[in-house]
Protein: Putative AMP-dependent synthetase and ligase
Organism: Magnetococcus massalia
Amino acid sequence: MARADDAMMVTDRLMPSFFAPRPRLQGSRPLSAGQGGLFLLRNSTQVGVARLIGLLPEKTSWLRMVRDGLEPPTPPAEIPIMDLQAMAASRWQGVAQAVKQGRKLLLVIGEECGERAGRDRLPPELLTLTQQLHCPIQFIQGIEDPQGAPHFWLERPWQPEESLKEHPQGWHSNLLHRLRSSFVSASLELGPQHIWQAALGSLKHHAPNPISDSTGLVRTPKELLLQSRVLAHLLSQQTEPGESVGLLLPSSVGGMMLFLGLIVEGRIPALLNFSAGAHGMRSACRTASVGRVITSRRFIERAGLQDAVKHIQRDRPVLYLEDLKQRLGLGSKLAGVGKFLKQDRLGGGLPPTGFSADDPAVTLFTSGSEGQAKGVVLSHRNLLANIHQIRSAVTLHRHDRYLNTLPMFHAFGLTVGTLVPLIEGFSLHQHPSPLTHHTICHLGRSWRPTIMAGTDTFLHNYARSAEEGDFSTIRFLFAGAEPLRPRTTELWREKFGVPVYQGYGTTECAPALSCNTPGANKPESVGRLFGGIESRLIPVEGLEEGGRLQVKGPNVMRGYLMPDTPGHPARCQFPRSADGEVGWYDTGDIVTLDEAGFIIIDGRAKRFAKIGGEMVSLALVERLAEQLWPDHQHAAVRLPSPSKGERIWLYSSHSQAHKSDLISAANARGKSTLLVPERILFIDALPLLGNGKTDHQALQRLAEKALNPPSTS
């Protein structure tokens, strides 16, 4: 591909960089004439401020914070300025008077609002100022569109309720959430509309950090996209436009190329969970109306999936990556390179005519931990929104190195483990299985990652298998998909000095909804909701605190494909809430929210037992056992009870677990004895799904069998 790279360098030099488009103001209308108010602009240069004030209504002044001993920035002469002495006791009086007189003020929130504090803390001056002013606030974001033209995005004016300002933590959380939401809105409206377009944009803005996998394959982002384009041309001859195409591959460079090659040609990848077994994969193909499946002979042989593939082939053809490569002739290569140079590099990778950001991008499948797996259809907008939401909350650097051990069929493995590194331009290593603990520990030492993520089960096993120094370069370690045990956090801190940040998400939300970060970490919580996400708690009978969490936002799925009503991803259905509203997704989780916006998960709604009229969380039962026996696994199930309605049994890998110890632990911690299970059953190891979650259905079957043993007569 050397000649192709040379050609691309020439086209880069010929790009019309001398053309400087005029900035535009987009979004909502600015505050009306005669109305005082505050504009908040995040991280902008003096040139940016000058351009913006020229677009805003008259009488808008730059509100400049002046600190003793520091020379304030000198703006162009035409910009009206109002200086605010940061340490003066009467600093707010002049500002308040100016606003009352109908003057509009622009405050630029600089680096102190985020980069150094993990994007979790706002400047104290901003908090105090906004608490003192009784006026509308309008957030502004400066952003470039995919062609490099500068724009400013205005959110709708917000008139805060005075009651919000009475609680400093709640006010800070509310203001920060709105600031992040404005960034997400601006990025979605003015930024790339297609995953391929976003990936191309990374070539212009980021260094060519390598993308590698455990087969030894290494590609620069440019090589990856070019070869994806070549592969796309070949795939267009093997598949139909808009076809749902199954992908049966591990996390790898080749898997990324196939995924990107399909979406750039308007096909919809359906990422099959190869840990679901032959029946599960065949059911998923039927649910998503998959026309054909693409896989690799080498992968099938190593994973022992030959019988599963034969099962799939009963309904649809299976294409092998090795055969596709043999069909890749000179004509296909030239055609792919030509499209890459003409459409992508010179044309900016504009989506095809008639494309909408809400078109299906991918079909994933739920874990099936509580029933038959459903198809979850995510649009380009859903995936891009989640990427922007993560960017607005987590400080990512171009020098970061992400070690992804989660499969791409896992929503976190796709969005966070694959698309975020690709689009944000940092190094990525794809490893095919989270189960190879010793290999992953070796990668921690040899590849030196700075970011990793996984389930509690996987992270606990890595820490136990690793030697001192294996993961010493990690700066962000995220846990999700199941509750994070204190013992896992302790292991990572003791062995490597690495904190574990618990997050929360669902496949239906593309997937991330919240996470703890260095600047805002409440270990018993799963962090605060990302920007652009609205939430509400639906009361649950029998619970005095908290409620059933429902969310709404641009990352929430396009809809479901149901196993009993299969169909094409474009015809998916979004479930209506109990009150008939569309757009609110019911997570099925019972949560409480504290004053600062942190989410504490009490358990799944389906994982509550009603004992004598009291709602008891199975997750809290498990948590009590984990506190008493932290080195063992525990899982609770509910069963019918003729006297109390329901009963709780606990499965534990601790052979000496006794009910009397749990009673003592509950009393010592001031917990209800309802958290003590009726019976404790020993199990060598909890059954797990392919994504690392506990297989609750398997445990439920075991418990029901133990409760009602088969007759021997």
Summary: The chain has 21 helices and 32 strands.
